[in-house]
Amino acid sequence: MNLNDYRERPHWSYSSLNLLLNICSLQWMFEKLLKLPRPFTPVSLIMGSAYHRVMEFIAMHRLEGRLPAPAETRDLFHTLWDREQKEGPPMEKTEDPPEKLAEQGAGLVAAYLQQIDPRERVLEFNQAFAVPVGNSERPLIGEIDVLVTGADGQTTLVDWKTSGRRWPKDQADKSLQPTVYLYAYNQLKPGYTDKFRFDVAVKNKTPVVELNPTTRTPDDFLRLERLVEKADQIVQHELFYPCDQSFACAGCQYAEPCKAWHRQAARTTVNLAA
After folding, report:
1. Are 235 and 19 in contact (CB under 8 A)?
2. Taking the chain, what is the end-to-end CA distance rounded to the nearest angstrom?
3. Which of 9, 152, 215, 255 is most buried per CB count within 10 Å?
4. pLDDT digits over 242-268, tens only?
5. How far apart are alpha carbons 166 and 176 in whole angstroms?
6. Bridge partners, residue 157, by sequence
7. What are the structural domains, with CATH classification, of the chain?
8. What pLDDT, in 10s, does the model give residues 5-17?
């Protein structure tokens, strides 16, 4: 089964848990429960989607022991960028024109190609998973971007990211995503690996790709199960509220229904979207 198949029934994923627990539970309600229409598509989503597709193209070649030509990946990014803009709601308005943003994305792809370690081997990519988590009735789902083995023979789960800034040193260690993915992978292959790495393409004036490795322990997995237990309780008892100080407020797609949330006695899809 692929990831879309797993998404057809209630589930937990890293992005869903992170949105509910760490960003804004009200935004989670608008998106996951009420499924309110989105008035625009963030640039970061279009950029990330096009970049991710090119990474898949590169991984496919690496699986065969070779790399695609830089010009080929550049052209592919521009094609995917144009396609992503035409799908779904219109792209949000930005100071930079789309053409400049596309060049920026192509630069990230070029930077990624330049930093690939020839000693590192791709084992597989886009591996979807669905595993039980604690006592939750919802399975934990996701998709591992790529699984690699290095010169030391160690296997690592890798996730591709784009970012507008360099990551702080402890961001990978604090992220919930490695916990979720390693928890799932170690159910599929117990004791196989505790290693995870974020390959972060940073949108500097001169693009750079930084590798951010991290590990997880059984205690981290126990903590995840407790977090999922709390997430289930939040949903069951409808404990949704706005997080007005969240960094995600800037450019939030649900800003208008959020403003009306406290004025609604009966919080329905109709009156929240009005």
Report:
1. no
2. 38
3. 215
4. 998 888 898 899 999 999 998 874 445
5. 18
6. 147, 196
7. 1-30+117-274 (3.90.320), 38-115 (no CATH)
8. 999 999 999 999 9
